[in-house]
Amino acid sequence: MIEITGLGDMRNWSREVRSGGERVGLVATMGFLHEGHLRLVDRALAEADRTVLSIFVNRLQFGPGEDLESYPRDIAHDRAAAERRQVECLFVPDAAAMYPTDPVVRLIAGSLSEHLCGPSRPGHFDGVLTVVAKLFNIVEPDIALFGRKDFQQAQIVKRMASDLNFPTEVVIAPTVRDVDSVALSSRNAYLSEADREVARRIPLALDAAHRLFLTGKTCVDDLVAEVRNTFGEHAGAALDYVEMVDPSTLAPIRMASSDSIVGLAARVGGTRLIDNVVVGDGVSGDDFVHG
Ligand code: PAF
Q1: Residue 227, helix vs strand vs coil
Q2: Taking CB atoms and a 6 Å cutoff, what residues make up the pocket around ligand 1?
Q3: I want to staple 240 with a disulfide (CB 3.0 to 4.6 A). Which of 34, 74, 144, 265 is the partner?
Q4: DSSP-H helix ranges across 20-123
């Protein structure tokens, strides 16, 4: 595995690979790698000839009071995990190279950030888009993989690539869940044992909407109420939102169809967790870590 920190070096590596007729796949991460990231690497390895895994904690996507400073970091662990998974190129740009000054020009997610996580995290998706556009311009990948756990992010990036004519194909891969069905996330590291108990209610609640949908109920108010009831009330935890949206416009819907997304965010202890399922599939439509 080669490790690159220079932005020009990264572009040169990619151009050289691509000039030989090989396809480059990109998995963009903020590090603290887990099996969810590594399944994206597997997919990139299957769909491209060479895989770049980037690690960069992007300050632009953190709001005031969010966890930028405490965001979990472990580059030695990440390096070993990437190497074991046969990543060819680890790209670890430093912050000064990525943002020599505060970027004046940024991308805007527009109406795609009006629902789900957008209202609670103003500017978050604009920060994500800005760094992903920079990574696409530096790495020039043929294909980039994003996990469906962050469905809104993945959909917004896909739309950016199409609206702005990036030549990169954006692929959204299934959420990867732990054996207890909790979606893998670097932020799960913050959870205490008691928090984890509460976190387990999240996939149960989303799956309850799926099961109700299978009985023929399509009214979103009923499906959302089912999610809220199944999640229940827990000391130190609260739902931020439960919403059902159209999978491409991310606009709220009133009647569900099988491809509708039911998503939620919950504060569990001090940690904000997000998750979603396609209502026609439930959690069984996702990937699981083998126990
Ligand atoms: O999902 C993430 O880890 C980040 O939002 C991303 C896509 C790497 C951009 O910083």
Answers
A1: helix
A2: 28-30, 58, 61, 128, 131-132, 150, 153
A3: 265
A4: 35-47, 75-84, 95-98
193-211: b (≥16 Cβ within 10 Å) or e:
eebeebbebbbbbbbbbbe
Alpha carbon of 128 to ligand 1 centroid (Å):
6
Which two three-digit tokens encode residue 5? 């920190």
Are residues 241 and 264 in contact, defined by beta-carbon separation less than 8 angstroms? yes
Radius of gyration of the chain (CA): 19
Among the options 34, 37, 124, 290, which is catalytic?
37
Evaluate if pTM is beyond 0.85. yes
Among the listed residues 81, 68, 80, 64, the one whose alpha carbon sits nearest the alpha carbon of residue 30: 68
The amino acid sitting at 100 is: P
Taking CA atoms only, the protein residue closest to ligand 1 atom 3 is: 29
Residue with tokens 């999978």: 247
**Three-state secondary-structure class, residue 51:** strand
Say how many Å lie between the CA of residue 184 and the centre of ligand 1: 14
* Mean pLDDT for the stretch of residues 281-285: 96
Active site residue 124: no
